[in-house]
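## Example record

The block below lists the input lines for one assembly entry, exactly as stored, with component labels intact.
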Amino acid sequence: MITAIASLATLGLVLGLLLGLAARYLKVETDPVVAEIEALLPGSQCGQCGQAGCGQAAAALAAGELPVTFCPPGGRSLAETLASLLGLEVDLSGVEDTQPMLARVKEATCIGCTRCFKVCPTDAIIGAPKQIHAVLQDACTGCGNCVEICPTECLQMFPIEVTLGTWRWPKPRLAA
Amino acid sequence: MQQPLPRVEIRTSPHIRSAPSVDEIMRHVVYALIPICAYAVYAFGLSTLVLIITVLLACLATERFFNWMADKPSTLRDYSATITGLLLALTLPPGLPLWMGAVAGFIAIALGKVLFGGLGCNVFNPALVGRAFIQAAFPVAMTTWTPPFLAARFAEFVPSSLALPFMEPAPLGPWAQSAVVDAWSGATPLALQKFEQVGTNTMDLVAGMTAGSAGETSGVLILICGAYLALRRMMDWRLPAGMLLGAFLTAGAFYLVDADKYPDPVFTLFSGGLMLGAVFMASDMVASPVTPSGIWLYAGLMGFLTVIIRIFGGVPEGVMYAILLGNAASPLIEAVTQPRIYGARKPRRKP
Amino acid sequence: MKVFRFRGGVHPESHKTPSATKAIEDLPLPERLYVPLQQHIGAPAKPEVAIGQRVYKGQLLAHSQGMISAPVHAPSSGTIVDIGEFTAPHPSGLWVRTITLETDGKNRCGKNRWHESAKPTDPFKMAQQEVAARIGAAGIVGMGGATFPAAVKLALGKERRIHTLIINGGECEPYLTCDDRLMRERAHQAVDGIRIMLHVLQADQALIAIEDNKPAAIASMRAARRRHANLHVVVVPSRYPMGSEKQMIQSVTGIEVPAGQRSADIGVIVHNVGTVYAVHRAIRLGRPLLSRVVTVGGGAVREPKNLEVPLGTLVEDLLEFCGGYSEPPARLLMGGPMMGQVLPHSRVPIVKGSNGVIALSTAEIRSRPAMPCIRCGRCVAACPCGLMPVEMAPRIRNGDLDSAMEYGLGDCISCGSCSYVCPSNIPLVQYFNYGKGMLADRREAQRKTEATRRLAQERRNRLEREARARAKAAAQRKAEKATDEAREKNSPEVSV
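Predicted structure tokens for the full assembly:
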């Protein structure tokens, strides 16, 4: 009886000690992940996620304050990459990409004030003072900063036009 | 110049389909089961007819009930519950109390099918799940056999059939003794062979003149019905063929080792539920592997297991457990027998 | 000759009899032709003509641009009335840039027959590159439906040694008979085209593979090749998808194209019968690709026919010439029923890759609602690529593209064998097309994110540069000011 109690108690103590040591010496260094997340983000500091910039957004995501789907320019593919990086199971089937929009200049009302290209995070707007500006569709991220600052509302967001090259088969609607 | 677009159903190729559809396949399986049911009624009489109807209704009612619970349209039209009901009834002893048959039907659909997500999702053959459940719950009733071709079989019920729920069924012995001219041992050919080393005439086995579960006795009729399905391409012939071959080879090997101790392979093929199991239950597509080489492996494994359980197990029959074990091994077999992708040198990663 | 077996495949009913018995007829010239600028894989052609310009038959309308592209020629003489948007022969019903040509009914050629640079000559006296260039300039693309520019494919022979040219006369799609009729009626021209191709590729042999359900075509091609020892007719079994490039190579040579490689990497090139016929016309007659043979068929067409059609003809003109519909069609297709595309309506033009216009009746399509999968495994047995559609489709449905890729989504050729045999009518091919589209979108989004990051970095660099420049300028000004002040302090007070 006493032997049994003693041996079990010893066993418990030894194991407890081992666990304690392991917790101390094998501790995982935390938070290299913020840097990793930031490296994946577009880095345009567009602010569409509500954070001040991509660095803050990465920290917020790592702290669990943002969902992996927070970044509209990164879209679905970024969300998937982030989910796999963080080991999260995210059901992305419900998270449709929000209709991607790009900015376009209405030439009739553009006064060439150049305010828009100061706020464009990717230098996607070209033009010169007093000349009509234009948006490079390929470089535009759809952040909408220029739309807010435009004094004549000549910059507006338009959905990207679907062409034969970008048309995709829809998902089968059927239940099966 | 641009035409207004009329509404066109956007859908991909192919635009033609080969027959048959799921419900056609299932309907033909029902057709193939009807002669076997008829023979079972012919051999065992009124009790069997009522048993088949009871089990079938229990299955259909359970399926419909769960449709209603889940607020989904009725799935009775796909005939899969009908097949489960008929198959289950055919694997039961002819004199089984009817209420036990109803319990088996309920369990088959509820535990065997609906629990896994309905048609196409069941891991095990639903009919065998039902049977395994009552085999475990009522072992005596499940091994009480009725002699075939009694003179009074259409006039009166086997006394045990009408037992009230949770009541001890009337013992069959005195009734059977009085009804049969010869001494009735109350055993199936398999049990006779296993426990008493008494053989049975092969012709009787093939034609179905012996005792046993309601629908398993006539090997030849089952083969004919199976051949019909295989020829109409409603069934994968490799599944029954593989299982029978596996059983034949295994039994043959034992027979070669010791012909006195082990039954000969032809007896193995035609005795017990092997024929019915191979043709109608092993061929259940849902629980079998989808890969072509996996099908042979799976079928052969079930045949092998049947013989092993029969020879070394505590009970004379092993088909049911062999098929259920095969069902359980199916995902594993599928994983290791995936086809090689065109142009790839190595097989794909194991899932 | 030994024929090898490829995995899987299906045997759809061929339905070739009504049109296979009809000789190729010329379609009367329509009043207007709608010639899309993109009838091929690759970059669209760039217009060379202006609205109102009169063009002669065979004149270059648009030249190719980029590495992979093909020019477009005027299928007949007439006036350009529009260069703009027109419905593409595509299920989406989206537009494609199209030149509209009002024909004058004269079919007038230029002064030098077709085109100055394309005078007919003896190809065997010409350098291979030059022949290949002429084939490219004639706008010839893969006529089996893939529409890959033929000259680009021939150029592959320059980099690698090609030993075998396979001529695809499989025509495994039900209903289609245009290649069959071509081989029966124009075998000598086709054989000549094959010899020109062999010359360009410097290959040892050409194997003409024909399915055994076309005995007349086999006989006629055998007769036509008789004098050429390095041409062989190979009779292959009728099994869908025999006409798919990889399956055809495996059937004829027994070799599988290794994953991630092209057929040229194993020394084999496959061309369609229609393509070699077009090559013959381009080189011997100097005629660019202006028309093609199209099968009009299906249960809803009154009189199925094989027609030689000027490119840009509207599908409705073909249907009208074939007596119109015998019953309202359940589905109108361009191409065969196994891989063809639904057309939004019949006012779309015939393009270089259109091998058939098929109007299927309700009875033929046997449309049924989808049922749950019963894991019967028929799709696995039917897949010619060794994939497991039964596992891929649910993964795609749940958005798990990565694991669908592990099951081989990237290797799917969309042949439709799996959907064809599925007893539950599950739209497997649509799941795979949807999955492939998602993958393409994903690649595109990644590219865009990369580009955005680069642009943002450049902007930061620019802002820093500007800030530095400003700081520098400010510092300079400050320094100047300081020196000025110092000078003021040190200098004798002159003014005071």
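Chain B has a mean pLDDT of 86. The interface with chain A takes residues 10, 12 of chain B (CB under 8 Å).
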